[in-house]
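Still learning. Any example?
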Amino acid sequence: MFSKILIANRGEIAVRVIRTCRRLGIATVVVYSEADADSLAVSLADESLFIGPSPANQSYLVAEKIIAAAHETGAQAIHPGFGFLSEKAEFARQCAEAGIVFIGPNPEAIDAMGDKIQSKRFAGQAGVSVVPGHVGEIDDTAHAIRISEEIGYPVMIKASAGGGGKGIRVAWSRRDVEEGFPAVRAEAKGAFGDDRIFIEKFIENPRHIEIQVLGDKHGHVLHLFERECSIQRRNQKVIEEAPSPLLDEATRVAMGAQAVALAKAVSYDSAGTVEFVAGQDKSFYFLEMNTRLQVEHPVTEMITGVDLVEQMIRVAAGEPLGFAQGDLAIQGWALEGRIYAEDPYRKFLPSIGRLARYAPPKEGEWDGCIVRNETGVREGDEISTFYDPMIAKLCVWGKDRPAAIAGMARALEDMHIEGPAHNTAFLSAVMDQPRFQSGVISTNYIPTEFPEGFSGLTAEPWQADVILSVALAAHRVLTQRARGVAGVFSGRPARTDWVVVVGHTQRDAEIAVIPEGLKITLPGEGRTLALTAIDWKPGAPLFRARLDGRAFTAGIGPAAEGFDIRLRAVRQRVKVLTPLSADLHQKIPEKAPPDTSRLVISPMPGLVVSMDVAEGEEIKEGQVVCVIEAMKMQNIIRAERDGVVGKIGAKAGDSVAADDVLAEFA
């Protein structure tokens, strides 16, 4: 076994590897760039070494710097994590030449499976079912159009070296290929240094299911069942679960057997994932093999009890697997929600900034569920433009799927983040939606369920009651404090009748103190609520309590005459008023929002790749105005109406912030 391992990665995966190494008594070294000098991984590792500027191509992607760091610190092996150099066969070879063990598969397996074009060709020869498509390189846009029309729309344009949802477009027409092919090629070149592209048939209403495989250097290969990763945005996974609600035992066995056969064919000797696209009829086709640890590996660990990072280390050290296929069984259900610094209310566009507050839910057992939070950040850390905008991976295990969903919904309530925008409200919305709860999902879930974009959910009756109760309880605490400070009101009874206003809805309420908390009477509705186990102090961002025995956590912040309250996917501005004040508020006219129809506004911070219109040019609705790049993703900004460009607000190469004016109509 190794005594010291270097981790050639950053963020939550570096922290994850450190956790296992500590348990095994292995010392750790992390390398870091300028942006990560004060990171959590650096603080947790036994040693750390600076390797260069923030851009990955000057630090984490420079193999020579990584290997030199291993020699300098005496590390015997390198764990690459995922991304960066993890699927570079040449890096694995360089490690071997330098006398350092690469904790991953042999380079020949990476070569065979790491290239998407070659892997499909190899899989077809091995008898694995593959998606119909063009297996070969594509010369230019005209060639891409010919291939797409031969296959038949819709098609998927994919970067051969792609991963993490980058370098992918679905084309439904010739125009989509004309615009999408050069965009995918540019993304591929920028993100992976490889602009080779392939095209395959897009399976409509598909599901994304993958099999976790594990092999050693003694010829043993097995699988650890499946994960479903169908909830995606921009072809990048957002919610994963294990096992899949689609598969029956026969399909699970068949899919696992294909994955193992493919892994054996390339003498696979580490943790890896064979990905399939599945139809709703349980048909499945090989997509690709990721020759590394997957981001979503924790859900597999939670249903099998196997530490995949530990197994990778033991296999790399030459140990045989300590268990066989028959020793493995699925225990319970696990979900992972990827918490990103992105704004779901703005089509999931990336967000950046400092984590002014970051308070994840407590790890461990919650009402029969187990909560695990994989993160690489702390309060005060910055989410920058240089790397993936992931904040954390929130994982929950339950005895079955309904229990895991309920546990995830509760854990998300307790996740508090301030600073950059984040997607916890969206994750909560999915947990609360009947379609997700039914298990009848697909990779088109987000555009189907939120065709106009995500704008939160309407409060369910129990959520409306929670929000009303939180507002009344917080208002009472603040008014009691004010009465105590003023002193002059000490002899007067506190008011008990209030009107709670949300938008145009008013609800009358009367409050009374009871030993366990508050009794709330709703005269107009003929019922009462009991708010108990209250855990909140003025200024605290989270309000924890039980309403009629049901535990909840709500986000709360001050607002004029009331509060901003968040409960799962519901956000509401709540006023707590006297009856007279409520009556007067109804007479106040509403303020009209500003007219921005003449402006083309940047939806996110980023770099202007191209400005495709000029002042005085007549443009049509849907025409490309400019291209903005953020987090290595290129976003095409289109005109939302016909008009004449009056003024250009940015040019290629400019950095822009969210809401900056890119162009203005005359």
The mean pLDDT is 92. The domain at 4-103 is CATH 3.40.50.20 (Rossmann fold). The chain has six domains: 4-103, 132-201, 205-331, 338-443, 461-585, 599-665. The radius of gyration is 27 Å.
